[in-house]
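Fold Annotation — chain and its backbone
Encoding — discrete vocabulary of local shapes
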Amino acid sequence: MTETNAIGRDFWNSSAGRSWVEQEVLLDSMNMPAARVLFSSAGLLPGQRVVDIGCGGGATTLAAATAVIPGGVAYGYDISEPLVKRARQRAAEAELDNMIVELADVQGLTVPDHLRFDIAISRFGVMFFDDPVRAFTSIRNLLRPGGRLSFVSWAGLEHNPWFRLPMEAAVARLGPAPPVDPNAPGPLAFRDRGRVEDILENAGFRRIASRATDIELPMPGGAEAGAALARHVGPVARLLKARGGTEEDREAIFASLGKRLKAFEVDGELRIPARINLFEATAP
């Protein structure tokens, strides 16, 4: 495992992974519109074999497993032990014996030819690879000839207030963030559709297509709930650490964020505009 992957593994197996489990209800609600875009593209059918890359707490794997009944199976892979544990709990709670979740890094994953999948899906689970060409080559090799890939990633910061507003509040308090590689592994790493299409082509995929889709991120509880969620997920913690921010800074940032999120409050619920990128490709 490379050092970058080791960092990612450690991150998702620390408090970050546990926070995603704890905030499951809000995160699943917020990400549901993106999941609808994904599943509309995937068009899952009974009897298919599906692999969910970066399955997280299992919401999309569970939906896939349900869609391919009877006769189909959905595998979920993730590098986070807390999230894999939760996904397995959800499968048991739903009594889905065709939902199988494994702790694994797909960058080096292989399966026997007779167990290859009809389709690979991912909802925001593929932007964290340190070597994306290698990772997507592995994903291609998980698919049968003619198997399909469908995934969604976030578009740019300018189209996604959920990411932009916390950073603006933090920068206003602490100053600019240290410069980083904009294509480094992270939530917005696949904002450039042309770059991602090149990655998929270099990984051996064919019939590659992408499109941007505008959605809304719904969140019960309004601006207060949104600011509370941003305490647990998102970029603010990294900037606080980089700039030596205090607890007073932290409280000021999230108070400011709560005010900024008020602009998207409708009937006590947040409806945050967002843009995602949908990618589709086929294994030769």
About this structure: The longest strand covers residues 206-220. The domain at 3-157+182-218+273-282 is CATH 3.40.50.150 (Rossmann fold). The beta strands are 49-53, 73-78, 99-103, 117-123, 143-154, 206-220, 265-266, 269-282. The mean pLDDT is 93.
